[in-house]
Structures are given as C-alpha cells and as structure tokens.
Amino acid sequence: MLKKYLPFVVASVLFGCAQPNDRAQQYLDGDFASILNKTATIESNKPKDFTEFAKQSEQVLENSPSMAGIYQPLYEQLNEWALQSGDPAQLADFGVQAAQLGGGDKKGNVLFTGYFSPVMELRHEANETYRYPVYAKPDCETDCPTRAQIYDGALQGLGLELGYSANMIDPFMMEVQGSGFVHFEDDDSLEYFAYGGKNNKAYVSIGKVLIERGLVAREKMSLKAIKDWVLANDDQTVRELLEQNPSYVFFEPRADAPVTGTAGIPLLPMASVAGDATILPMGTPILAEVPLINADGTWSGAHQLRLLIVLDTGGAVKQNHLDLYHGMGPRAGTEAGHYKHFGRVWKLGLENSATQAPWALPPEKLE
After folding, report:
1. In terms of DSSP bridges, do strands 132-135 and 119-123 run parallel, antiparallel, or are they unpaired?
2. Is 184 helix (H, G, I), strand (E, B) or coil?
3. Mean pLDDT for the chain?
4. CA-CA distance, 196 to 138, in Å (whole number)?
C-alpha cells in the first residue's frame, strides 16, 4: 500500500498543499511572525506606476505642516528613487528602510478593499419622486434615534433635511462611504457632503444579511450586487433590509471641495489608502503590489507596484487590511465595490529621521 501512495506523499513534500490564489494571493515569502517584519531587500518584478505619488505627497506637504515636518525627507528620497531607479531592490541605496506586513494569513497577503466618493442626485425640496430625506446631525449623543425610527419620521420638523433623494439606497451607500458629492437636480449645483457624525448605534452589514438570507451568493457580493437586489425589490422590502443596520450616518454640507480623508488631505485616486493608524500613522508611505481586477470583479492575474500614502482610516480597516481610494462617481463605485483582493505591502521609513525603523511597533501591538 505504501508504494501506491508514495508519489502523492513525495509531491506533497515538494510542493505543499494547494493554496488559494483566486483573489490574487501570493506565497513568495514564507511565514511571518509579526504584523511588521524588517525587510533588508524588497524583491518584486511587478510592472510599476509611481506617477501619482509625487502629486499625492505634494498635497500632504502643502496642507499639513505637521506631517511635512515628519515625512518630507522620506517623500523627497522616494521621489528621487522613483525618478532614478524605481527598482525596489535599490531602495536602501536611497536610505529607505522597509518592513513587510505579515498579512492576515501570516504569509504576506494583505487585503485590499476599495472605497469611492459617490455622486448622489438630490433636490432641495421634496416632490413625488424625490421624497427620501437626507439629514444633518440632530442634537443628540447617546440617545439618538435608530435607523428605523428615523425612517418612521423621528427627525421630521426639526429643520435637519439637507435634501431629498429619489430612493433609499443612494443615501445609504453614501453613509457606507462616509461622505460624497451631491448634485442638486433642481438648480444644477454641486456640493460636497462631509461626514457629520452618526447615531452611535451598532453597525450591521446588509451585505452579510443578504448572504445569510440566501438572497445573494457570498462569492457574488459587492456594492453593485446590493444595488441590483434593491432595484429589483419594492420600497417596503428594501426598507426592512436597511433597518437591519440600526447605525445611521449624518452629513455636513460644504462647498464643492476636494475629497479629503481623516488626515484632512485631498485624496487622489489610486494614490491614497485608508489604514490602521496604530500601525500605519497618517502620512505613512507604503510600497504595494496592488492587485488588478477585471470588470466582473475577478482577478486579472496581475499586480502593479505603486507608492501609496495612508491618509484615511475606517472602522473596518484594521491591521492587515487597506482600503484603496478609487475616485468619484459610478465607475469608481463599481470598481471599488468589486475590490476584495490581496497584495504584498511594505511600510517605508528613512534612516536617521523621524520615520526610521518602520518595523517598530507600539508595545500593545507587539506579538
């Protein structure tokens, strides 16, 4: 019997068990013991695109003197490296140090999701079509109404209406993103709705609810899948689904302005990410093999090497998870909604500067 199974045993020893790569996973670096792992030399032969880094770093330096004081020397060296070399193996020649993120699987696979700035159609005054209100934050802290209570009219008559949508899902999607642009259909004006607070109720993913109810397959779940399901159902059915998430986000209107993240810096598409600030402080540059996906959400089979800057945070963005900003509008929304793929990531620092030793962790993060 041993002879019968020997070839399989030998193959298993030589090649190991098959590992999934349908979402762009790679297995090039062995196992990692920590969240951040000191890396002497980065080896990557992926196609490169560093064109947006100079523009995004310039936004940081122009808009934040405090971050400029920390990161300007590192940004300057990275721009020099990108112009003169662009070879990850030569980063050390420019004084740049690196620490690779271990990934949730401890094999270097860091999850990339995507977010975008939606453009929502509203009217200033309600009519038969535009009848779903979008609200500014009421004067409440711990005792704010739930989503269901707000839908029942708990905020009516308080003068908090910022506009009216033609459906319930567009405001909900903007809540998920945290902010977005609004086009007022009645006077053709454009405003930016910034995050204005929330009702401090627990967040429940309606995507997860749809999966658990068997209404959308797990492998098909995306923002587009949610919207398609909503458009195929009546208002009462949609409302019942949305009310499964008691959390509600309010907005603060501002003049048409650049999209900014938590750091208050204008965000450029495919140049900035949201990350865990306890590991990647605001302004941190990272080198990332960004997964490239097809229009249907499947992995294209390729990664692209990019320099990105951490300029935003998010409640679900913890440790080995980055949220890549895709830009504004429906196309960016479709692309971001499909994004649930993996790539390798290195946190960067500059020797003999405030950013040196990027592998260092605060005591509570040491493992």
Report:
1. unpaired
2. strand
3. 90
4. 10
For 201-243, give the DSSP string: PPP--HHHHHHHTTSS-GGG-SHHHHHHHHHTS-HHHHHHHHT
> In this structure, what token pair is assigned to residue 51?
């064109």
Burial of 187 (C-beta count, 10 Å sphere; 0-12/13-18/19+): exposed
Q: Round to whole Å and give the CA distance between 46 and 48.
A: 6
Q: What is the Cα Rg of the chain in Å? A: 23
| Identity of the amino acid at 110 | V
What pLDDT shows up at residue 328? 82
d(CA 8, CA 22): 24
Tell me the per-residue pLDDT of 137-185, one tens digit each, with 9 for 90 and over. Answer: 999 977 899 999 999 999 999 999 999 999 999 999 889 888 888 999 9
Max CA separation in the chain (angstroms): 81
CA distance 232 to 169: 12
Task: Give residue-wise pLDDT tens across range 92-125.
Answer: 999 999 999 999 999 999 999 998 887 899 999 9
Amino acid residing at 1: M
**pLDDT (tens digit per residue) in 221-232:** 887 889 899 999
Rounded to whole angstroms, the Cα distance separating 364 from 35 reads 12
Comparing 357 with 328, which gets the higher pLDDT?
Answer: 357
Q: Per the structure block, which two tokens stand in for 58?
A: 């310039």
pLDDT of residue 362: 64
Residue 261 above 90 pLDDT?
no
- Segment 85-91 shows an average pLDDT of 97
Cα-flanking dihedrals φ and ψ of residue 309, to 5°?
-125, 135
Q: Which residues make beta-bridge pairs with 163?
A: 134
Helix, strand and coil percent figures for the chain, each rounded to 5: 30, 30, 45
